[in-house]
Structures are given as C-alpha cells and as structure tokens.
Design brief:
It is built from 7 helices and 15 strands. With 320 residues, it is of the alpha+beta class. The radius of gyration is 30 Å and the shape is globular. It binds 2-acetamido-2-deoxy-beta-D-glucopyranose.
Amino acid sequence: MLDVRKRGQSSENKESKDGDKVNENNVVDKEVVDSKKPDINRKLPLRVISRIVVIFSLLIVVYFSSKDDKVKTFAKQSELLPGKGLVVECSQAYKDDLDKYEGCFPKECKRFVTDKVISVREAEELLAIAKKGFQLGKPAGGVSILDLHSGALSVGQRFVNIYKTGDAKNTFNQNDFNTYRVVKDKIKYAVAHHFGVNPNKIYLTYPTFFSEITSKAAITIHDEYWHPHVDKESYKSFHYTTLLYLNDYNTDFKGGRFVFIDEKFNRTVEPRKARLSMFTSGRENFHYVEKVSSGIRYAVTVSFTCDNQHAIEDPSIKNL
Ligand SMILES: *[C@@H]1O[C@H](CO)[C@@H](O)[C@H](O)[C@H]1NC(C)=O
C-alpha cells in the first residue's frame, strides 16, 4: 500500500515538474520494449488490420452496388420529365373486371410519370389549400388525410367532417374549389389520353384526398402506408390511380419515395412538386411508399373508376 502511494506520488511530482519530458521518456521506453519482441509480433496486427479494412471496404462496395441493382430510379426528383412510361402486363383480375365496362379498357396497362401536365403554380395553389385544411386538426400518427369531397379530416385517431363542424366555412373559398376542379379535370384528360380511353367513360371516385405525411410514429393501421399493396384490392372501385406531388423529395422531406415492386427490381418515383404519376390500379402496379424520415410530404391522390355507380361529385362551396 505504502509503496503504491509513494510511486503514485513520485510520478505525479515528476509530471508537474516537467510533464513533456516524462511523456517523451515513456515513448522511448515503449519502443525499447517493443523492439525486444520478435519482428512478426509487431507487424502482424498492422497487416491484419489493413486486410480487414480492405475486405470490409470491398464488402461495402459489393453490398451497395448489388442493392443498386435491385432498386432503380424511375423518376428522379432533379429531372424535369416531359413524360416517362413503362408498359406492364395487366393482371388477370384487372382485365376481368374491366371487361364489364365498355370503353374504359386501357390500350395497355402501365405507369406514366409527367412533370408537364400540372404547372408548378397549380401545385403551389393546391399545397396552400392543403395546408389551410390540415391546420384545422392534427392526427395522432404520422399521416393526415383531407378529403374535400366528403369533408373528412384526420383529427386524433378519427376523422371529423369539417363541413359539419363549420371549420371549412372560414377556410376555403370559391377560388380554392375552382383550382381543385381545374387540376382534377386536367388529370382526368391526361389519364384518358395516356391510357387511350374515352374521358367520358372514367369517373372521379372515392377516396380522392390530400395527404400530409410526417415522420411521427404510426398510431393506427391506416398510418402504415409503407406496406406493399394493390390499390384495386384496397378499393374495389379503383381503375386508374393518379398521384400529384405537391412538394419535393430530399428538400422538403427525406424518405417517402414511391416504390413499384417488380420481379427483377423495384422502381422508385421521387416526389417532385407538380409531378403527376398515373397507373392502372391492378396488381401490375403493386407498390408502397417508403417511410418519411424527416420533413413533411404533401400529395394528392386522385382516383378514377370505370363504374359510374361509384362516381363522386366535385367539392363545392355549397357544402360549406
Ligand atoms: C422490392 O420491395 C419489396 C418490398 O419492400 C421487397 O420485399 C423486395 O425484396 C424488393 N425487391 C427487390 C428486387 O429488391
């Protein structure tokens, strides 16, 4: 005990007197000791470490490049796409269902992404409308829905009807509904044009809604948008699904890419303000949305059916 204390004391004293010198001495001492050991012992760890580093870097490169092979960017955020399409084979169930409706069968099943149908200005006007609506209530989880047709808005774990609560009256005006209708009609004609169907044979259907997605944890099953699904199986009336993005992937939010799940590899659509994505709603367009990891993602889902029994009306100021 005494010995230890003494040693401790003496070394403390040394350090306080001439600290740097002590350190130098220590280094010299160590080297002397090391050089007494055989050469291999000193070099082996270094060689092993450098090998491990090389192997791991290779593994990382291989991992990421093989991952890249499995996911392709179909529509990049930074690109202004006049139009990019991919034809896919219609699923049998989709074909069987469409046979019931004359003049609504697409020339071919596909996805089509374009940044030229809706203007940035229109997207910004819609974004302003969406934000006004979403201010009227906050959801419990990370997903909020605003349906201007029915008035449904996510509040807590439920929906409230903002047309019934009177909240909508002081929020929306005629101009908002006009903008909404103009954009909806443009989308409808774009669907008709790109899928080769008569615009009078497709009808806006339920649900058509704005979505606001944050990184907040899911509370209800409806918050879990990241599960792969087929739109037509979630909503029987769907025949053509369209998504209009209102803000930008990577600048306004991270994560939240739309992913088509295909056999060989998946294909992503990166949201971009005013980007319109249209696709047939059957299993040929199996998809999910990646979790949003930060920021807020805004989009509108505008869906169409061939079944006029499931047509819905445009939202109107009369509802207020
Ligand atoms: C595509 O995404 C799905 C769902 O996340 C996944 O199960 C599948 O492995 C992905 N496909 C490829 C080829 O990576």
